[in-house]
């Protein structure tokens, strides 16, 4: 079977999951606090997570093209289909942008004019952290990514019409465009991560953060690839994809889980060693109020894949790979949860009652004492256990399922638009005879 | 070490070598060893070689390295010579981790190299008998041990080498 069709039953299932997601988002919205903090942070969290997966599929596709590798060719349609999700991502980010301009959400501390007025640090960053730049960068960068995604997909389909050993399209178009996308995608993703994720903790910054986020996306992308392939194989598609392909995907998951840990730890250790207040605040917050997720994050995203995927044979077993990839995918979702939620909650608390406490720092002792009395309630609130922030609640899980279903639906629809195996790719034979042991 | 009398055939091409090994298996000939200048894909399963356990040894060496580094630094900084660096506690694990990592890699790599050499009887000062110098260049070789073998066995080896396309057939005592 070289043509995928989305069966009615699967379509209904995905639709119902999307409805569950919508319902959960609706419930979140109406049971939320006055600023709809939980709703908007869930929305941003899942949007960023899945855009990243689509982006990394494109980046990895291009990297493989430049490296002249052939192993992935047999299932490259999967990654091409992922990249098309960037269009949905653009629409979803547009919702965030509209919310930003209409003051519909308060995800970003720098977007609140009163806070910026009272805050020297935010003023200093305001030439980059402002709604105009946010909108411009998001639209332009996501637009460029989607443009490249369309182009790469179009070239790949164009290749179907050439002779098997004809390298014209491959060399003249795909490789050239891929070599352009690697630097563009590499640098622009860093900027977009600063705006989307890092600026949530607007006072804080880390030079490592963009890499760390990107690798989190990358591991998620690989996990979702493995899960998609296993699903499609169970439906009788992709008989050409063998244990050897899973072996290589498993090696990538293993290697980049370790690399993720390396970046996570590098960021952590430098901040821990430097011990500068404005840097340690990021980890202090997560230590104190999110201990389970903080250590759990390291355990699921490092210890588990490291020990399980270290062996040669586990990467070739579908059962083990399914379990590990599901867990690690959720692990990286939780990683993003930890990047986004604490900062958003902090901003919300400041806006809802801690304004004085914040402004007071610049105004000296007496004001601080006054503000502490005022803001005491807010501060107490901040350190208490809160479902949906301290740990993901049922509504978060429902929202995640909804977004996953949306991603899966879009991906499978795109997948059904082209033959599953790129028979004319010059590297297809290498991929069909891929052998790693 | 007892000398071995070896009958061997040299092949010009790895594909011929692969089909020859298949043929030898089907004739139930007892191959002593196969030599090649580079790893030939698909040869290991044909010869029935089991997967190397070197990496398992590597894991153990690595784990020993991890423990050595961790326990040693713990002992030094809590018992033997406590020092304060950068206002941190004596026992500050994050600072240990880079060294733990380095020692894990060091132990694993050196341990694996030494194990590899020891098991294969190689290393400095050891000379290994070579059947033909060109085996390290462009020839592929199938070798049979013919110590005390009777005429008919030797001639069956010889016939096999001739049939399977060996370009040279020789004997050598090593």
Descriptive account of the structure:
- The complex is a heterodimer of chains A (437) and B (174).
- Chain A is mostly helical and 437 residues long.
- Chain A has one domain.
- Chain A is built from 16 helices and no strands.
- Chain A has helices at residues 8-30, 37-66, 76-83, 85-101, 113-117, 120-125, 131-158, 168-196, 209-234, 243-274, 277-289, 291-309, 318-360, 365-382, 394-415, 428-432.
- Chain A starts with 7 loop residues before the first helix and ends in a 5-residue tail after the last helix.
- A 4-stranded antiparallel beta sheet of chain B has the order 2-3-1-4.
- Chain B is elongated, with a radius of gyration of 25 Å.
- The longest helix of chain B is centred in the middle third of the chain and has 27 residues, at 54-80.
- Chain B has 5 helices and 4 strands, in the order E-H-E-H-H-H-E-H-E.
- Chain B has 2 domains: 5-51 and 129-173, 2-Layer Sandwich (Alpha-Beta Plaits), CATH 3.30.70; 54-119, no CATH class.
- Chain B has helices spanning 14-26, 43-47, 54-80, 93-119, 151-163, and strands spanning 5-11, 33-35, 140-145, 168-173.
- Chain B has 174 residues and is of the alpha+beta class.
Q: What sequence of helices (H) and strands (E) makes up the elements of chain B?
A: EHEHHHEHE
At CATH level 3, the topology of the largest domain in chain B is Alpha-Beta Plaits
The parts of chain A where pLDDT drops under 50 for at least 5 residues are 356-382
Gap from first CA to last CA of chain A: 27 Å
Radius of gyration of chain B: 25 Å
Strand order of the largest sheet of chain B: 2-3-1-4
DSSP helix fraction of chain B: 40-55%
CATH architecture name of the largest domain in chain B: 2-Layer Sandwich
Number of contiguous helices of chain A: 16
Question: What is the overall pLDDT average of chain B?
Answer: 90
């Amino acid at each position: 079977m070289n043509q995928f069709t989305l069966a009615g039953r699967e379509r209904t299932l995905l639709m119902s999951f999307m409805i569950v997601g919508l319902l959960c988002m609706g419930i979140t919205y109406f049971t939320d606090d006055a600023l709809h903090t939980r709703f908007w942070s869930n929305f941003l969290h899942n949007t960023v997570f899945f855009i990243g997966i689509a982006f990394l599929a494109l980046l990895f596709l291009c990297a493989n093209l430049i490296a002249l590798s052939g192993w992935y060719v047999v299932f490259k349609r999967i990654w091409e289909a992922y990249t098309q999700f960037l269009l949905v991502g653009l629409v979803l980010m547009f919702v965030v942008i509209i919310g930003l301009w209409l003051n519909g959400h308060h995800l970003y501390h720098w977007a609140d004019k009163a806070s910026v007025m009272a805050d020297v640090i935010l003023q200093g960053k305001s030439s980059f952290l402002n709604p105009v730049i946010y909108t411009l960068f998001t639209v332009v960068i996501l637009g460029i990514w989607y443009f490249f995604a369309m182009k790469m997909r179009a070239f790949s389909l164009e290749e179907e019409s050439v002779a098997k050993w004809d390298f014209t399209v491959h060399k003249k178009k795909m490789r050239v465009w891929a070599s352009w996308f690697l630097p563009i995608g590499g640098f622009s993703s860093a900027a977009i991560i600063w705006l989307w994720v890092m600026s949530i903790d607007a006072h804080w910054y880390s030079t490592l953060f963009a890499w760390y986020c990107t690798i989190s996306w990358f591991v998620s992308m690989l996990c979702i690839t493995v899960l998609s392939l296993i699903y499609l194989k169970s439906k009788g598609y992709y008989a050409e994809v063998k244990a050897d392909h899973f072996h290589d995907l498993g090696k990538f998951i293993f290697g980049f889980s370790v690399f993720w840990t390396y970046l996570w730890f590098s960021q952590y250790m430098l901040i821990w060693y430097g011990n500068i207040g404005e840097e340690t605040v990021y980890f202090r917050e997560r230590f104190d109020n999110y201990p389970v997720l903080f250590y759990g994050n390291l355990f699921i995203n490092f210890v588990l894949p490291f020990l399980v995927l270290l062996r040669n044979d586990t990467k070739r077993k579908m059962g083990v790979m399914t379990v590990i990839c599901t867990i690690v995918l959720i692990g990286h979702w939780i990683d993003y949860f930890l990047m986004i939620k604490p900062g958003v909650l902090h901003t919300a608390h400041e806006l809802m009652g801690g304004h004085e406490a914040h402004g007071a720092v610049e105004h000296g002792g007496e004001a601080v004492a006054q503000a502490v009395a005022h803001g005491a309630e807010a501060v107490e609130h901040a350190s208490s256990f809160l479902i949906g922030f301290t740990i993901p609640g049922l509504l978060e899980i429902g929202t995640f399922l909804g977004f996953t279903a949306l991603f899966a639906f879009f991906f499978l629809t795109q997948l059904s638009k082209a033959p599953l195996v790129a028979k004319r790719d010059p590297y297809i034979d290498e991929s069909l005879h891929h052998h790693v042991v | 070490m007892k000398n071995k009398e070896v009958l061997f055939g040299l092949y010009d091409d790895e594909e011929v070598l692969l089909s020859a090994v298949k043929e030898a298996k089907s004739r139930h000939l007892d191959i002593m060893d196969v030599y090649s200048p580079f790893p030939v894909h698909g040869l290991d399963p044909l010869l029935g070689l089991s997967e190397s356990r070197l990496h398992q040894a590597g894991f153990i060496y690595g784990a020993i390295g991890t423990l050595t580094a961790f326990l040693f630094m713990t002992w030094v900084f809590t018992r033997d010579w406590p020092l304060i660096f950068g206002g941190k506690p004596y026992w500050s694990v994050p600072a240990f981790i880079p060294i733990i990592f380095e020692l894990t890699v060091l132990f694993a790599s050196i341990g694996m190299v030494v194990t590899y050499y020891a098991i294969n009887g190689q290393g400095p000062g050891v000379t290994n008998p070579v059947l033909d110098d060109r085996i390290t260049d462009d020839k592929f070789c199938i070798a049979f041990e013919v110590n005390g073998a009777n005429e008919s066995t030797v001639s069956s080896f010889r016939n096999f080498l001739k049939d399977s396309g060996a370009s040279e057939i020789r004997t050598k005592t090593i």
